[in-house]
Amino acid sequence: MDNYSNSDLVITLDYPIDQIEAVSYNDEGGHLNLVVKTKSGAAKVETNQISINNSGSAADVCFMLGDEALLGASASMVDQGNWVLITPSEVNKTWAKSTIFDPDAPFSEIFTFLLPMIGLNLDIDSGKNLLIGLRVATQSFSVNVSPETFEAGAICLRATQPGENASAPVETMPIENIEKSGNLLSGTNKPNPTPSA
User: pTM of whole model > 0.85?
Assistant: First the structure.
């Protein structure tokens, strides 16, 4: 999308998003029908929970992954808004308010660390999506990996655990809480064997 229009239609549901199974559309009867399927046992969406607005909104910040030239005619979208360029190549783009350059890290690894830095928490869906991105970019953590790649994978996997029963990251949990909760790390506590000649 290369512009933001006040004629855009925005439909907002005042409904718990974790109770929505899927959102789809069809054109039955020659009309556009948006279909919101709730999870089994969830309350139905009431009419008073739906609001419709004709308004567009510009994002506070936009991210460009790689070279905007690959977007072809849509590349002009970078002329509007606040853009952060994330790139594996050392380049200087005048339209970018900031550039994150890393020749080795996959984009999904960078985003895993970047999102909390800008005040956004990973939810289950974003954790899953970033984890899939990490697995694809590293061929299931077998190439192009670093300690940070595995750390990003752990953060994403942790984010996919539903509910309050998900364990807090070990590095932020005081040792006395780990001992009390029984969340002990498995292992033998034995040193690695010393190789012999």
Answer: no
